[in-house]
Amino acid sequence: MSNINTKALASPLTWASTIELLESVKVDEIGVKERVASLSTRSIKRESKLQALNYIVSMCDLTTLEGEDTEGKVLQMTAKAMRPDPTDKEVPSAAAVCVYPSLVSTAKEIIGTSNVKVASVSSYFPSGQVPLESKLLDTKFAIDEGADEIDIVINRKAFFEGDYRKVFDEIVALKEACGNIHLKTILEVGELRTYENIKKASLIALAAGSDFIKTSTGKISNGSSKEACLVMAKAVYEFKESSGFSAGIKVAGGIRNSKDAIRYLIIIKEELGEDWLHADYFRFGASSLLDDVLKQIRKLKTNAYQSSYYFPRG
Amino acid sequence: MVKWEYSESIESDSIVSIQDKYGHFIDGKFSTPNSKNYLKTVSPSTEEVLASISIGNKKDVDKAVNAAKEGFKRWSKTTPSERAKYLYKLARLIQERSREFAVLESMDGGKPIKESRDFDLPQVASNFFYFAGWADKLDISWGAKEMKPYGVVGQIIPWNFPLLMLAWKVAPALATGNTVVLKPAETTPLTALLFAELCEEVGLPKGVFNLVTGDGTTGAELVNHEGISKIAFTGSTSVGKYIQNAVGERDIGLTLELGGKAANIVYNDAALDQAVEGVVNGIFFNQGHVCCAGSRLLLQEDIHDEFINKLEKRMQTLRVGNPLDKNTDIGAINSKEQLDKITSLVNEGVNDGGELFQIECELPSSGYWYRPSLFTNVQPSYNIAREEIFGPVLTTLTFRTPEEAVEIANNTEYGLSAGIWTEKGSKILWTADRLDAGVIWANTFNKFDPSSPFGGYKESGFGREGGRHGLLSYLKVRS
Predict the structure, then answer these.
(1) Where are chain B's structural domains?
(2) Which of A51, A38, A4, A1 has the alpha carbon at shortest distance from A262?
(3) How many whole angstroms from its chain centre is CA B2?
(4) How many CB atoms lie within 10 A of CB B47?
(5) ipTM, 2 decimals?
(6) Cys-Cys link to B129, which of B91, B109, B142, B344 (CB 3.0-4.6 A)?
(7) Active site residue B257
(8) pLDDT tens-digit series, residues A253-264
(9) What chain A residue is nearest to B8 in terms of C-alpha separation?
């Protein structure tokens, strides 16, 4: 898991070919729920569980996105991302830390030669309710500060007003601003609500050149869901079939325990295949998930379920 | 690249205790058979012998029918709410011991534990609960002046859903005041024998439920016994025809639930990804050993290639193997005989010119296994498009218009079930209206509920099981 962000970058399609992708979007809600329920009965034990837990650590974007964030808090968290469990060298580092633009340089400072990436939210996360010019400024600032990855939000105002072209154009413009920086596009599935909306938004974001599509900002009560992840995986597959590009998925918002996270991994494995089980293709955005995973790893290895104070604060 | 394989996650079989040898359950207790002949029931996933089962003869059947006759005198006079009480007790006990039943079902029949645990057993319990509820409400079920039970009912059940088919038959028969002589399938008698133990445990009055194990000869004795007032049979169409002939000259009730070759129609305006799931569930559920399986995939021609691509990709993720592994999707074929039948029909399909896709997977070295299979390039005249294969083999046909879809769907001697996939509601209704099938699903498949009557048209049989209509299979109505 050492080499992250080595895969080729996405490039936007034309609007005309994007429209074609959107034409046939049909999703049956009950079918989606049944498939997720069925995959949730998979029983992951022993070696396969340990392997899954290590994957989850290596795919984790350790996140803090609060008004109260300070340099001190971000330094703590970044140090934790670099060495999640100082007592166990087999535990990999997290994939990235995810912070606001003003704290990017702080995280970069401590990261040194570590493989951990610094991701910054931008485009006026979480609402995105500003003109494109402001979103571009926000993004350029984060990049200038040294961000390796940029997490933007789609324009839900435009989406619900039916202006898919505007949603697309804004992402294209932000992608251009990103250059060779990896772009993750947040759909905010809890606002989009229907699976057809989620699939449409996924395809628009993919066609506009997103390297990843991401479920949620984590700032609303209904964040990620396994159903949304499944629909996004279908979109990623369809997009690969038509364009040849393999995009990644980031699930974020309310994923707090190992069991839940493993269920996401199962969806990705069975829907997209083994190739997606890598931080270049799948990420978890979370703040409290990591500690639960570390506890589970130690439990598997030592048979002792230890308290939080055995693990460093992040 | 390191792959993420699921470690084995085996449901322990230590919960079940299987005897070496079983007798029949007659007059409220297990008894030594008159017949000296036994057959061995094997686990189809290991070929290991699980137990010896008596092949009940004429005298065994005689004894059981006589016990049921005596039992009927008392049971038909039992108050309806009292009958309900026993059925509720059975339902609760089945729930309590559902893990034991599920493991035994998977061992004896080969179906994946996730299906016996999450489908069969919950359905079994809910059927007993459902018909327990009807027992004291028969007067309002059809508004008839008077309704009488038949008397002694002979019930012959198949090997694909052994305990569930028992529940479909025994629960309504007992709720309506009949008594029962049941013959389970020769390859899957163990859960029925365990059910008999439960009847003893709840103190079900003597002679109300009787069980005679055996093979086809035992079934024939039951069908031809003069003490029987009604036969309920689920199984193959050929045996169904034999039974109908055999009872033709007698005053006897009959319901038959037989084969099927259901069309699963996918229109080009369907939600294709979910339709793929539904088609997979429609044919590969329970290794395709399902009479209402969606075994003929009818695809609108313009989505054929896209759909087949998605379907093959999805099929490749099916996990074939040990039925007791919680991650197994496809278990063992029920018997050597069935495996041979599937193999020979598939070979015939290939020789006819069908294009065969089978998934790549390792099959266990012992036991009976068949790879999930898909035929394309099939003409309606091929045998694989006409005969019930009763295995994990899907046959694809194409159509151009809704009219043509209906025509092909109905172009079969069977009429048990059908599926329709489209996001357009009006098209669902238009199509369903024209399909000759007893059960039609739209944008889903293989959904069951005790309150919904199940049964076929044409050579798929007659009579209904489940729901208010299911009561009529066990009642004589007078008004």
Answers:
(1) 21-258+460-478, 263-449
(2) A51
(3) 41
(4) 12
(5) 0.95
(6) B91
(7) yes
(8) 999 999 999 999
(9) A45
| CATH architecture observed for domain B21-258+460-478 | 3-Layer(aba) Sandwich (3.40)
pLDDT of residue A314: 83
For residues B49-59, give the mean pLDDT. Answer: 98
Residues in B touching A35 (Cβ below 8 Å): 274, 277
Per the prediction, chain A carries an average pLDDT of 96
Neighboring chain A residues of B317 at a CB cutoff of 8 Å: 270
Contact A277 B4 (CB under 8 A): yes
Rounded to a whole number of angstroms, the distance from the CA of B393 to the nearest CA of chain A is 21
Percent of chain B whose pLDDT exceeds 90: 97
Beta bridge partner(s), residue A62: A97, A286
Q: What is the mean pLDDT of residues B266-277?
A: 98
For chain A, the domains span 15-301
Name the average pLDDT for chain B: 97
Cβ–Cβ under 8 Å, residues B152 and B164: no
Q: Are B281 and B315 in contact (CB under 8 A)?
A: no
For every residue of A152-203, DSSP letters joined together read EE--HHHHHTT-HHHHHHHHHHHHHHHTTSEEEEE--HHHH-SHHHHHHHHH
> Which of A6, A30, A36, A43 to mutate to probe the B interface, most B CBs <10 Å?
A43
Q: How far is B271 from chain A (nearest CA, A)?
A: 5
pLDDT tens string A125-169: 999 999 999 999 999 999 999 999 999 999 999 999 999 999 999
Dihedrals phi, psi of B159, to nearest 5 degrees: -100, 0
Is A307 in CB contact (< 8 Å) with chain B?
no
In terms of DSSP bridges, do strands B393-399 and B373-376 run parallel, antiparallel, or are they unpaired?
A: parallel
DSSP designation for B325: B
Instruction: Spell out which residues of chain B touch residue A275, defining contact as CB-CB under 8 Å.
Output: 1
- pLDDT exceeds cutoff 70 at A195: yes
pLDDT, one tens digit per residue, over A46-72 is: 999 999 999 999 999 999 999 999 999
Q: Judge contact between B273 and B306, C-beta under 8 A.
A: no
Set of chain B residues whose Cβ sits within 8 Å of the Cβ of A32: 274
B403 catalytically annotated: no
Backbone angles phi, psi at B171, to 5 degrees: -60, -50
| pLDDT at residue number B1 | 64
Return the SS3 of A251: strand
In this prediction, residues A112-121 reach a mean pLDDT of 96
Q: Which pLDDT score is estimated for A2?
A: 57
Residue of A nearest to B278 (CA): A31
Q: Does this model's pTM top 0.90?
A: yes
8 Å CB contact of A28 and B443? yes
Residue from B2, B7, B446 to probe the interface with A (highest A Cβ count within 10 Å): B7
Report the residue of B4, B280, B324 to disrupt the A interface, i.e. the one with the largest count of A CBs within 10 Å: B4
Q: Is A41 in the B-facing interface, judged by CB distances under 8 Å?
A: yes
Which B residues in the span 391-430 are in contact with A, Cβ-Cβ below 8 Å?
A: 423
Can you state the angle between helices A29-39 and B272-284, rounded to 10 degrees? 50
For residue A240, the Cα-to-chain-centroid distance in whole angstroms is: 18
Cβ–Cβ pairs < 8 A, chains A and B: 65
A46 CA: distance to closest CA in chain B (Å): 7
Sheet containing B21-22, strands listed edge to edge, beginning at the edge strand earlier in sequence: B21-22, B49-54, B38-42
* Chain A contact set for B271 (CB, 8 A): 26-28, 31
CB contacts, 8 Å: A48 with chain B:
4-7
- B263-449: CATH topology: Aldehyde Dehydrogenase; Chain A, domain 2 (3.40.309)
Helix and strand numbers (H, E) in chain B are 16, 22
